[in-house]
Amino acid sequence: MIDVIVLGGGIVGASAALMLAQKGQRVALVERDFCGSHSSGVNYGGVRRQGRPLHQLPLSQRAHQLWADLPGLIGIDGEYMRSGHLKLARSHADFAALQAYAEQTRGFGLGLQLLDYAELRARFPWVGDIAVGASLCPEDGHANPRLVSPAFARAAQRCGAAVYEQAEVMRIEHDSRRFQVHCANGLHLQAAWLLNCAGAWAGSVAAQFGEAVPITCAHPAMLVTEPLPVVMNVSTGVEGGGIYARQVARGNCILGGGRGFALGPLTARPGQAAVLEILRNAGELYPFLKGAQAIRTWSGTEGYLPDHEPVIGPSSTQPGLLHGFGFAGAGFQLGPAVGEALAEIVCTGASRHPIEAFSIRRFQA
Amino acid sequence: MKPVVIVGAGPAGISAARTLLDHGVTPCLIDENLRGGGQIYRRQPLGFQRSARQIYGFEASKAQAAHRTMDELAPLIDYRPQTLVWNAEDGRLDLLDNGRAESVDYARIIVATGATDRILPVPGWTLPGVYSLGAAQIALKYQGCAIGERVAFCGSGPLLYLVAYQYAKAGAKVVAVLDSAPFSAQCRALPALLGQPLTLAKGMYYRAWLTAHGIPVHQGATLQKIDGEQRVSGIRWDDHVLACDAVAFAHALRSETQLADLLGCEFAWNTLNRAWLPQRDNAGRSSVNVVYLAGDGAGIMGADAAKMAGERAALAVLEDSGVAIDQRRPAVLEQQLAGIQRFRHGLETAFPFPEQWAAQAPDALMVCRCEEVSAGEIRAVVDEGHWELNRVKAHCRVGMGRCQGRMCGLAAAEIVAERSGRGIEQVGRLRGQAPIKPLPFGVEVQP
Prior knowledge:
The structure holds 2 protein chains of 2 kinds. Helix content of chain A is 29%, strand content 25%. Chain A is an alpha+beta fold.
């Protein structure tokens, strides 16, 4: 007997499975490919609160607490570093926006530090001259998503969750008592709870239960350099969007920026236009990259809703169905807290942290 | 009008370009090298004056013919030497030409990307003084350099004897040839090899020449370790220790398939090559409508076959474009290619893949030199339950570095297969990702 079926072995689904298993629930985690092999495993690796909309901050702060003891949670450090996250402003208007954000988020405990041109140069001399100022969130950081996301699934398994990989769901029914989930490999599962954490592919599950959402896919363009001398001591982004970059302990710099394209329903590539754009423009923000070589590019498939906010919480049509998807390229940091919130709904009927803003009802006229 | 593009100016690419031009189609020929000829007929830099006979031996007349063809073609076609194809997307190739990013749209494309050595690492393989067989040969052919003064040649495959012979002939001291294939395998292969008597005779000649000149040839001898501190000082196999200052090693060749992968060609497991290869029909048509494959880049058959396959693929391009061709020619070429294919089966019998390599690789052996991943680290990931090559890569970085698995990918797959108890064909292949070779920041982009 199973209590909960979780669809999707990304960081959200695997976290939910882990938290549920820790609370004594009998869980089956069902993944079409390999756990953590899509967006959760191939994203930039930013573990960042800075820049999030205000109503995401309570969950994001909870996630921040969970990340603090990552080894305790999943058994590995996942190259997680609280390096700080530096958001750069390329104009005075952008810097004013950073100042306004710092003001609005004062009560949330992000500890943002605004750095003017001179302070930025003094603390981060490697930043390109184009940046007029920046906002530093000292306790934000970055981690290796390739390692972290699969480790959540493995931790869930160690806690007793049954993890089914390469199990593509073909059919879901609800027989008035339980969900019946049928997979292409013959696997048949039934449970009273169903968690829809299927990422970019979650829309079809919602639609099947009569609550279609306008979800679309997007594909970030990512690339990595060969190992370079370590100069970046923070993860960086740019106000208003553009290139973001971090450097791992091994010395490789990971950069993202712009959009790629879908190769098929499951695979994506960054595309030459975005790659060349990064290679051409990274120099003004990160002058030390001049002459470095990009050795690999990649992309993934991320789910976006029109307001770039996720869907988290109970279905409006089907009791027992919970959603957690559509993180608009920013779900890696939130993942563990979302998994926990979904587990709390199953076990206690409600999440401890506010999630009303993410209800699926917002798409129902 | 969009051109027919040929990628690679080796025997296949040159022959494809010749064929197209002869039928009134002016191709665009893109090549990474400074001068056409590919690796096998790699041409010495301008101003170097060694004779073709010195450089190419028995292959001198073929090499000279290829170079002559290249010289005739160069002014008549859109020839782009020293140009890297780093990506393919949506009917367009992305190029890097002397630090400038450019692109070219194609109506049809012939992929003739050739091959590199297949490397099965042994302890010490990253020491200075260790080269692949192909690299050792290029040093000699291209720049007239030997890789050392006392050189050992190890591994297996026809190139082993050829390069050892070329080195000895050029005056280098060849201290030993270690062939992991036993003599009995070569005897077993004889019936199939007799189908190409001239090629067989050359192989036997090199072997006999080495023995006649007092160069020890050890068959059934597997290189176990390359000794040295700062550089190579010797090699070990079985109970033997032998001093040398350079080692050339490889186990036959592997196809360069990354471009075919980025172009979306379907791949299938090929038992003969022990590799995933882009599928092609007898004419060289791939699974993608306008993409054609020729030469060693789609399965190892050697230079003579590559020349024929280049012509055959070009004829297919012409046929598919509605250009009239001599209708008898394709059948002739396909028949000749089939003959060489039979010979290839014989070679694989004569120089079998060393199946025991993965089991014998010590845990400390560095398999991926770019990311410094050892056999033991790969095995540890497999022991956690992973068996698909891309998953193993995600967990331990094998194949994630500068070469993108071109050097270590096959060896890593062997270790994953052996450790997980799966067949080598079941562990998958590394996903192709741009850039095919590294791309610099600050690249100039042509509008």
